[in-house]
Amino acid sequence: MTGARRKSRAVALQVLYEVDSVGHKPEDVIQHSLAEEVLTEENTEFVKELVSGVLDNRKQIDANIKQFAPTWPIAQISVIDRNILRLAIFELLFDNKTPIKVAINEAVELAKNFGSDSSPRFINGVLSSVSNLATRQ
Fold first, then answer.
1. Are 13 and 46 in contact (CB under 8 A)?
2. Buried b (16+ CB within 10 A) or exposed e, 77-101
3. Rounded mean pLDDT, 43-65
4. Cα–Cα distance between 34 and 47 in angstroms, integer?
5. 1 band by pLDDT with thresholds 50, 70 and 90
6. How far is CA 38 from the centre of its chain?
7. Which pTM was predicted?
8. How far apart are CA 38 and CA 45, in angstroms?
9. pLDDT by residue (tens digit) across 9-29?
């Protein structure tokens, strides 16, 4: 089950990356990305929920990134790191279906797989700060 959820998060990240970097329509990117993956109906819905949740709450999510990574303007954070943060912050502060430690761990794993050598540490640091906010809500 964990592997399937992780795969779903990776698909959602790839969709967000393409939408952010190239500006393609989210619906088209989701459809194309899901056609290339074998996911259960539940995990397909999870991908859609993650993507739409991030996109619907992007202003507030980005405000959290600005607050907890003040030395890094959003535009200067790599596209992959920015979208890993958006995905995890959505799960931490808006979705509330994933335990905090799991959301952070999953984000760090995505950073290890898709980001640079410094990505996991950066992602973990920002999300640790965000999680303090999540526990107070």
1. no
2. beebbbbbbbbbbbbbbbbeebebe
3. 96
4. 9
5. very low
6. 20
7. 0.93
8. 13
9. 999 999 999 999 999 999 999
Per the structure block, which two tokens stand in for 9? 């998060």
Structure tokens at 8: 């779903």
Structure tokens at 36: 């290339």
Tokens of 114: 């898709």
Tokens of 98: 């994933």
| Rounded Cα–Cα distance for residues 79 and 31 (Å) | 21
Amino acid at 84: I
Which tens digits make up the pLDDT trace of 75-103? 999 999 999 999 999 999 999 899 999 99
Tokens of 66: 């600005």
Q: What angle do CA 105, 44, 127 make, to 5 degrees?
A: 20
